[in-house]
Amino acid sequence: CIPLYNFSYIYNYLRASPRSFVDSFLDKKERRYNPNMSPYIPMSKWRKGSQWITLIRRHAEVIADDDVVFPVFKMFCKQSHNCIPDEHYVQTLLAMHDIEGELERRTITYTEWNQSATNMDKSSWHPVTFSYADAGAEQIKRIKDIDNVYYETEYRTEWCHNNSTQVPCFLFARKFSRGAAMRLLSEGVIYQFDASAIMDPTP
């Protein structure tokens, strides 16, 4: 995982937002939900999303204080019915607390997926690892130019805003080989951006 911008830009981007960044969506084709979780976790609250999240303090406290949802995951997400908890737990917990309206429902970490499997069989999808050869300035610019994310299962386009200002969607990207990361550093592809591009969150 690499930063796409320098520390100051990333810091100001995160500090400017009053919301958590949590990729969270309803997957209507989801087979990971265990019916035995009901009524503690109703299927209507079952969510899925990226493991790469950024939380404001209040939402972090909700997770730290949870003594209801986590035990249910622990009880029913076992090898015989692996629900992949790192893609569901935080998203489902926040939905259970009815605070999805306080989220930017997107991740700030870009991942490119190998979609060699058919649309009907996504089990073999896996994140692409960028090699030295394909980790140049053009690839990074393509990622940084992304300003919206489309969620097919919800027919929802999430435009990337921060404190009412349109911003790049992603601050980080994965996966890069060691050689690819070294190339980006040595060629100065990253760390060349002005933090003032993100507004100061002061009133």
Using brief descriptors, characterize the structure shown:
203 residues; alpha/beta; three-stranded mixed β-sheet; two-stranded parallel sheet; 25% helix; globular
* Gross morphology: globular
The main sheet orders its strands as 1-11-4
Give the DSSP E fraction (strand runs of 2 or more residues).
5-15%
Q: What composes the largest sheet?
A: 3 strands, mixed
Please report the number of helical segments: 6
Instruction: Round the mean pLDDT to the nearest integer and report it.
Output: 86
Tell me the Rg in angstroms: 18 Å
Topology as H/E string? EHEHHHEEEEHEEEEEH
Q: What is the helix content?
A: 10-25%
Distance between the termini: 33 Å
Structural class: alpha/beta
Please give the domain count.
1
Count the E strands: 11
Q: Report the uncertain regions.
A: 117-122
Pfam families: Branch
Membrane topology: Single-pass type II membrane protein
InterPro entries: BC10-like (IPR044174), Glyco_trans_14 (IPR003406)
Main location: membrane
